Amino acid sequence: MSNSIVDCIRRTALVSVATLVPLVAAAQTAPTPPAPAQRQPHTAPRAAKQEPAVAPQAPAAAPKAARAADNADARKNDDVIARVGNTNISAEEIRGYVAALGDRDLAALRQDPNLLSQAVRMMLANRLVLQEINAKKWDQQPSIAEKLDRVRESAAVELYLQTVSNPPEKFPSDDDLQKVYDANRAAFLMPRQFELAQVFVALPKDADKAAEDKARKSVEDIQRKLKAPGADFAAIATEAGDANGGALGWVVENQIRPEIRSRVMELAKNAVSEPIKLDDGWHFVKVLDTKTPYTRTLPEVRDGLIQQIRNERAAVLRRTYLAELLKQQPPVINELALAGLLNERGAATR
């Protein structure tokens, strides 16, 4: 697809954060986050994990049912899905990965299973990197270990905050959802759309005269073919070098370049424009079909709207939790000393 025809063909979001009105009524239906536990600050070091001096002995004999279950679990875990070197990824690991995905990511995987294959390849690459890290004991360097500790702390805090700010499973209610939809109907307006195809003859801005003459000859040849009785637009586009027969798909009106849009608006269904000269070359545009503007229904936007409302509610719960935590234990910061540390860093880098 030529970038000149469409400024930005992208997936149309169901609704953006900025377009939604405040969800006061909806937010009140969800419980507030749990209050942070009140405790005195302490600096006790983390206890090292203790390994048993002697491994506990397994029972001499296990019931048949238990052994069967263990064998089934073993087979389940031994089902290798991918391997690189001596590193395996089991079906159970993939199940865990998929189970941890959000609704939107899961829907994307179902729509394009190749994404899961790409994720598995990345997991294998990560395993190889980890093997190299362990072999070189890279993570045991003091400066690296300190950074890793900070990363672990940040990850733990983020996961915990996600837990305490996660809205209830059935939030929002159907009534809340309907209220938000009714208050934001304008956000769900789908502009007029055009199903377009094109034949494109490239001609860069800085092309020399020989290239211009060659492109112009191609344009004249294509124009002659398009005007012939029974002309096959897709075949002509393919002959001109477009593997998709010139198909651009459905394009929203305001995403079409103004120079093209003005011509498209004048064309009837199945009509073809005269050659249009833009800064990247020549375009013959065909209107295959049109859709008039319409407002998407609640069923059409339901999943995306629910996710948007839940995200907004989670952000509110997170802010509420953190505010309460700091209220219980107000922080004290020596701003002068803090500024001095920053100045020290600046002096060291000069």
Characteristics of this structure?
350 residues, two-stranded antiparallel ribbon, 12 helices, 8 strands, disordered N terminus
Molecular structure report:
The two termini are 49 Å apart. It contains 12 helices and 8 strands. Helix content is 49%, strand content 12%. The radius of gyration is 31 Å and the shape is extended. Among the domains are: 167-189 and 297-327, no CATH class; 192-292, Chitinase A, domain 3. The chain is of the alpha+beta class. The strands form 3 sheets. Strands 5-4-7-6 form a 4-stranded antiparallel β-sheet, sandwiched between helices.
The Rg value, from CA coordinates, equals 31 Å
- Provide mean pLDDT, rounded: 82
Terminus-to-terminus distance: 49 Å
Which structural category fits the helices and strands? alpha+beta
Tally of DSSP β-strands: 8
Report the total helices: 12
Element-by-element helix/strand order: HHEEHHHHHEEHHEHEEEHH
What is the CATH first-level class name of the domain at 192-292? Answer: Alpha Beta
Looking at CATH, which topology of the domain at 192-292 would you report?
Chitinase A, domain 3
Largest β-sheet summary: 4 strands, antiparallel
Given as residue ranges, the uncertain stretches (5+ residues, pLDDT < 50) are 1-31, 39-77
Global geometry: extended
How is the largest sheet built, in terms of strand order? Answer: 5-4-7-6
